[in-house]
Every structure is written in C-alpha cells, then in structure tokens.
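for the writeup, i need someone to sanity check this before i put it in the appendix. the sequnce is what the collaborator sent (i think, or maybe the updated version? ugh). structure was predicted straight from it, no edits. if anything looks off just tell me and ill rerun, i have time this weekend
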Amino acid sequence: MAAGDHPGTHSTVIRAFGPGRVNLIGEHTDYNGGLALPFAIARGVTVEASPRRDGEVRVHARDPDERDAFPAAAPERADGWRAFVRGTVAELRAAGVEVPGAELAFWGDLPAGSGLSSSAALEAALSLALLALADAQEPDRVALARLCSRVENEWVGAETGLLDQLASLCSEEGSALRIDFATLALEAVPLDLRGWQLATLDSGARHEHAAGGYNARREECREICARLAIEHVSRADPDAADALPEPLARRTRHVLEENARVDAMVTALQAGDLAAAARLLDASHASLRDDYEAGVPEVEAAMRACKDAGAAGARMVGGGFG
C-alpha cells in the first residue's frame, strides 16, 4: 500500500492496494464472536486517487461506461459498486476525516462474487487512498476494519462480520491471521506448507451477501442468542444448544465445532501436520453443507473435482450460497 507523486504531473496521485483473502478455516464464526484463520493473497484491488478542487468525487471503474459522480460533503445512497465508494467517503467524513474532492479509479484481478472478498479489498484500498489524499493520520487498523465493515453493513446492505476487512488490512506475508472476534485479538500463525500447496477453484456460482442466504443466517443467529440469553452464538452451552429447535440447533453446532477446528488447525500448522490440516478442511466443509446449509450444487461439484484430482482436503471458502 503506497502513495506518491505521479511522474510528469503537478497533481498528487495516490495509489493504494487492498488484498483479497482466503479463509483457511473458521466460517460464519466472525459475527458469532468466534475464531477464524484467514490469510491475505497477492490478488486484490488497486485504487488511484487524485485531488479535485470543486469538491466533487468522480469515479471510474474498469468498464468505461461505469462511472459515478457525487459531492464529497454529502454522498447519497446508491446501488452496486457505487455504494462502496459513497459509503467509504461518508463513513470517513463521519469519523472526522475531511475527504476532499477526488478523481478515483479502481481496478483489480479479483473476480466479484468469487469468494475471495473483492468487497473488503475494495473497501480497504478506498479507505487507505482517501486517508492519504486527505493527509489524515491512518487510524488503528482494527478501527479502520470496523469502518469498512460499516460501509458493507449500512451502505451495501450485507450483514458481514469483520473477518474479510481484518484479513485484508492486518495480515502479514507468509502467515495466516488467527482472529478472536470476541476480543479482536490478532495472532500471526506461520503458514509453512512444507511442500504442500493450497489452491482455490472457482465453482462458477456467483454470490452476493446482500441478496443471498447470508442475511438469513444472521437472523437465525440473533434468534439463537435471544433464546439462550447470550451475546454471541460462540458462548452457547452445547447441551442448551442441542435443545434448540431445528435448524437453530444445527446452526449452533456448526459455530461451536468450527471454533474448535480453528484452534486444531493452528496446532496442526505449528506441528507441520498437513494431513491433519486436510482432514479439518473436510470436516469444515461437511459442517457448512449439512449444519449451516450454505452450499449449492456447483460448490459440491467443485469439491468433488478437487478430491478427484487428488486434493487431501477441501472445503467451500467464503460466505457460501455460491
């Protein structure tokens, strides 16, 4: 993530990069006060920003027909990718950052809806570019992740947790990031694959958090907490969880067992036991498919293709439902 003067011009040009992420294990645990183990990847989204004197923000996406313009001081709501840009400007200004008029362009090599968190990558790159353009001090990265999450929750309409934003903003090269969402404690876990490889395969089924089953699962988890009088599903007593009606009992079982799998994965990585890590991926997938019901036929076909090609373990990655 870098800033600098564009050669050959008198205008300052800022470039910021937000990486995508793969979540090794710990799915649908972030908004439930649990554990996850994501890592950032080399692919991501780049935002280029330069100042405008008229107080307007003008945006150009990769497609020349995809443009937007709005006053920096008063962004109004919009749909699609425009909601990310307007929401980021609005949330930064609400946090006291005097975002100036700006010319923005963004591009990247993360396919939208592919489960690699192009949304959080865009939010991270936008916020870093606009902070630099405003000559504002960068806040704590956890606080910045919270701001990006508000953009997605309140402007885009997707009730995502903090996993993607923390992974994009706080990961270290060569390590996964253990996140405890109850405390927001972060721990770098060396990702030494010892000759093994991690690969992602696109199932071909697109997803949108704001339009899919993701928000329905969030509502179910709120109901679980209300029934058990707890703050987060991760705090559920297993016996009390088993007494819940279906599908709430299965949703709770997934969260509790997935939390245990995260720490088991940390132990496996530290011991160099990649065979155990592979088995944990398989178990996570079965739980996401059967207990959390986040799968679709295309993802199951991709899973079979991975295993038929010799994968030791595999699971769906991302929020699911595509």
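The chain has nine helices and eight strands. Strands lie at 2-5, 12-25, 35-51, 56-60, 67-71, 102-108, 175-180, 185-190.
thx in advance!!
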